[in-house]
Design goal:
Keywords: Hydrolase. The chain has 404 residues and is of the alpha/beta class. It contains 18 helices and nine strands. A nine-stranded mixed sheet has the order 1-2-3-5-4-6-7-8-9, sandwiched between helices.
């Protein structure tokens, strides 16, 4: 396949990967969906407005319609076939006496000076968020002209990557270290750019502050950075004050799921592993609420079905104990993780917590930023062309400043 020439400097053992579940697994999913009841109609699930943080979540009617679509119209085999049109790999990484088997999609360039680019997803996302981004790169460049080596991993515990150790804690810092070993092992120890939204933004920040191989960092999520005073907010532009209001609404009214992940990960992990319909309600709400325009149901089902078949939910929410556990840590507001290297930031107005540029400047050497007029939390999925343009424009600026 094109774009499959792994760099000759790679030291990791990399194996091709093919996405596939058995017919029995497919039949099991359909059976569970058929026998899963939907709760009774209530005042809350009748009047709920998923687009508002101050409402009650998704409506019963949305879940009912989504269930029927999943049962009668959705085709997982078609989704798997799409996954397998990309170059999927797994790589075994030894870290602290534990073997991580990391799945990733690689779009490798034949250009001698191609810039290695690591794209990190978050929760409830997956590598699926970046498929349209990969398509955009492929439509612009062939493997001889592609200016980047694009690496899209499944984070530990997500999708086709194995979960963290069962006998010890696992943190964002651990994930960052594992992904750094992935990039260095692929032959990119001389330098690479890391990008992330949601959990991926924290990973990218930690990488930028701790890895010598990371030369520049781009993020589209920066929750945790707050104003120093009310006067600072009062002096912001009207649009930034609106952003601050949306962020406050999320923290006050929209973060119950995160507090559950952070304080009761065992309970919620087991609950959501017991029913595909429950998983759809939990994850579907996020895609509906955090996007600028509600995404096609098929895209939501791609992600939820992937989570279901790979049993991701209980394996992947470990990071929330750092964000919403006993000692909250958000990295973006920690001086220890100030980015001295070139930092880029894309602001999408319907992000779940759109942090103004003026605040992001406090967290690193911000050399590039762009504010968009539309788009939300899943920027790579919602605005793939704009996302790619942001990455390209940032790298043009950052790569020069990093003097590689």
């Amino acid at each position: 396949m094109p774009y499959d020439q792994i760099p000759s400097k790679a030291s990791l053992k990399v194996e091709p990967f093919n996405a596939h579940v058995s017919d029995l697994q497919l039949e099991g999913l359909k059976f569970l969906l058929q026998v899963s009841p939907i709760g009774p109609e209530t005042y809350e699930n009748k009047v709920a407005d998923v687009n508002s943080y101050t409402s009650f979540g998704i409506t019963r009617s949305w879940l009912e319609e989504a269930k029927q679509h999943w049962l009668e119209k959705y085709d997982w085999r078609k989704t798997e076939d799409r996954f397998n049109t990309y170059n999927n790999y797994t790589a075994e990484i030894d870290d602290d006496n534990f073997k991580y088997n990391i799945h990733f999609i690689g779009l490798f360039s034949k250009k001698a000076d191609a810039v290695p680019l690591l794209l990190n997803h978050g929760w409830p996302g997956s590598f699926v968020e970046f498929l349209d981004v990969l398509d955009t790169f492929k439509s612009k460049y062939d493997e001889n002209s592609l200016p980047y080596h694009v690496i899209v991993p499944s984070l530990p515990g997500h999708a086709y990557s194995n979960g963290p150790p069962l006998d010890k804690d696992h943190t964002i810092q651990d994930t960052a270290r594992v992904l750094d070993k992935l990039m260095v092992g692929l032959g990119f120890g001389g330098g690479y750019v890391t990008q992330g939204g949601d959990t991926g933004s924290f990973i990218s920040r930690v990488l930028g502050a701790t890895s010598d191989s990371v030369k520049a960092v781009h993020i589209n999520f920066a929750v945790g950075i707050g104003p120093e005073s009310g006067d600072e907010v009062a002096n912001m532009s009207a649009s930034d004050q609106k952003h601050m209001g949306r962020m406050k609404d999320f923290l006050d009214q929209g973060s119950a799921y995160a507090r559950m992940h952070g304080t009761r990960p065992s309970t919620i992990g087991l609950v959501l592993s017991s029913s595909p319909l429950a998983l759809l309600a939990w994850i579907g709400e996020k895609f509906e609420q955090w996007t600028d325009k509600n995404p096609p149901l098929e895209k939501i089902l791609d992600d939820v079905t992937l989570y279901w078949f790979t049993k991701s939910l209980p394996r992947c929410i470990y990071s929330y104990r750092q964000f919403f556990g006993q000692e909250p840590q958000f990295f973006h507001n920690d001086p220890k993780y100030y980015i001295k290297k070139p930092l880029g930031y894309s602001l999408f107005p319907e992000e779940l917590a759109p942090v103004p540029v003026s605040l992001v400047k406090k967290s690193g050497n911000l050399v590039w930023h762009r504010e968009h007029q539309s788009g939300g939390h899943f920027a790579a999925m919602e605005k793939p062309k704009e996302f790619v343009q942001d990455i390209e424009d940032f790298i043009t600026t950052a790569w020069t400043k990093s003097k590689m």
